[in-house]
Amino acid sequence: MTVMIPSPSRTASQRLRWTIADGWTITRRDLVHWARQPVQVVVGLLFPIMVVLMFGYLFGGGMSVPGGGDYREFLMPGMFAMTMLFGIEGTYTAVATDVSRGVTDRFRSMPMAGSAVVVGRSTADMLNAVLGLAVMVVCGLLVGWRWHGTVGAALAGFGLLLLLRFAVLWVGIHLALVLRNPEAVVAMQILVWPVLFLSNALVSPETMPGWLGFLAEANPLSATVSATRELFGNPGWGGDSWLRQHAVAMAVGWPVLLIGIFLPLSVRRYRRLDR
């Protein structure tokens, strides 16, 4: 006769510690994978540097900054924000690959916290994002970018950039858990580029057709770019629209909204993968 022993009940603080401990185990698993395959990480770090050099030195001579100012100081906040979306498809593909190969099922059969896998994966991605942002800041300083506000304002700008990454990350994790197929997730990579370029990172929305310019201005990426240019004291497009006048609020509001929607959906979807 098999006797089923019920798991002991846990308090809220015990469940939180359990989730953090299990999530960190998954994070270390992903970090070990990256350490054994460093080429992928190195290429991910070098690609945005190449884009900076291309726009800063090949195209920069033909660019005019609204109201005057150094083009590379105008460019870098947009590149910082775009870097938050570069390489994120690797996380989506890894999540879908684990699902398709049954790795996630094995995790779910273990006595682990229900959200540990997605939390661990997101933590590893955010560590990678911090590293990528640090490399980009060094690159920006080398090409002549500077911030002109206070240290607190600069730190707030970097915080908004990482907040954007965290929000987009949960959107992708949810879609990866829904699609499950790595080949299908690859199609999501194509959607990253319209989001990048349909923004104010490189081109003013005023140069676009009216409806397209509105979409570009309402893009969460545009809000983060405008907010960081403001916090760093770098030149921007200007304008008197409500979205531009409240860029910092929108740079907080958009990611918080996306996290509030897709983080719970991702955890719920993970727990219901067998249905």
TrEMBL record:
Major localisation: membrane
One of the record's GO molecular function terms: ABC-type transporter activity
Annotated GO CC locations: ATP-binding cassette (ABC) transporter complex
Entry membrane topology: Multi-pass membrane protein
UniProt superkingdom: Bacteria
Regions that span the bilayer: 38-59, 79-100, 129-147, 153-177, 184-203, 247-267
Location relative to the cell: Cell membrane; Membrane
InterPro entries referenced in this protein's UniProt entry, alphabetically: ABC2_TM, ABC2_TM_bact-type, ABC_2_transport, Nod_factor_ABC_transporter
Keywords assigned: Antibiotic resistance, Cell membrane, Membrane, Transmembrane, Transmembrane helix, Transport
Transmembrane helix is among the record's keywords: yes
An individual GO BP term: response to antibiotic
Domain (ABC transmembrane type-2) ranges: 39-273
PANTHER family recorded: NODULATION PROTEIN J
Family: Belongs to the ABC-2 integral membrane protein family.
Protein name: Transport permease protein
